[in-house]
Design brief:
The protein has 247 residues and is of the alpha/beta class. Helix content is 34%, strand content 16%. It contains seven helices and seven strands; from the N terminus they run ααββαβαβαβαββα. α5 runs parallel beside α6. The longest helix has 18 residues. The radius of gyration is 21 Å and the shape is globular.
């Protein structure tokens, strides 16, 4: 980006000295860095958060379990199962700190792109190892932020746990920050059935470490599965899906 700006600047100066004033160069607007989440003004975020709290508590019977397990400060990862789009605002709803998300890249070219950015999301390519997204997640944690990851990569159409991707384990091992496993159920009926019960269970923070000095593929898979097994343990049996047999 700096090189492009320098090149444009140089071209402008050359044009000016050559006397071709009839050719005006148009200023180049820097492209948005989608991997740098939008910083929502605290007052605005607080107002929207309280509005969401009101809406969900009126339309649902919201129950929190183990909320005291959520760290009060410092960076950490929230890893949760994913049943419905309402999981996105529900999981951090009662936290005073804003969070950042990994969201599928298709959202950033849709009509909801502005909302996705506003909520603090950055894109991730599904179905592949998106190194740029993983690096962006690590950078957010280094800045002291809270990173929300849905390890399954997308909403579960069967409302049961699907096999997780390994990005969670990689980021957790590389950064060394705690991972808070979260299990949510009932959200698949949120805003569809009035006063539906929704439970959000927050587990104790897990600090994952490699077995040796270097992180191996085995370490990554084991770390990911360890978190997913904990999420499954907190879920009712009918939601455990592929992790049901591991209980």
């Amino acid at each position: 980006m700096k090189q492009d700006l320098s090149a444009n600047s140089g071209a402008s100066e050359t044009s000016g000295t050559s006397g071709t004033s009839d050719q005006q160069t148009q200023p180049v607007r820097p492209a948005k860095n989608l991997y740098e989440p939008y910083i929502t003004p605290p007052i605005l975020y607080g107002a929207i958060r309280w509005l969401a709290i009101f809406v969900f508590h009126v339309t649902s019977r919201l129950r929190l379990r183990g909320f005291s397990n959520v760290p009060k400060s410092g960076p950490f990862i929230i890893a949760s199962n994913h049943l419905d789009w309402t999981d996105i605002p529900l999981i951090p709803l009662h936290m005073r700190r804003k969070v950042v998300y990994m969201a599928k890249e298709e959202y950033f070219s849709s009509r909801l792109a502005w909302l996705v950015r506003f909520l603090g999301a950055f894109p991730v390519k599904r179905g592949e190892a998106d190194r740029q997204a993983l690096r962006a997640g690590e950078e957010q944690l280094k800045k002291g932020n809270i990173l929300v990851i849905f390890p399954e990569g997308t909403r579960s159409r069967t409302h049961t746990l699907a096999m997780a991707h390994s990005g969670l384990g990689l980021v957790a091992l590389r950064t060394g920050v705690p991972v808070v496993p979260v299990a949510i159920w009932g959200s698949e009926k949120a805003l569809k059935k009035f006063r539906t019960p929704i439970t959000i269970s927050y587990g104790e923070p897990m600090v994952l470490k490699p077995k040796g000095k270097k992180i191996t593929r085995e370490d990554i898979d084991e770390a990911t599965n360890l978190v997913m097994r904990k999420i499954a343990e907190m879920l009712p049996p009918e939601y455990r899906g592929v992790y049901h047999s591991e209980q």
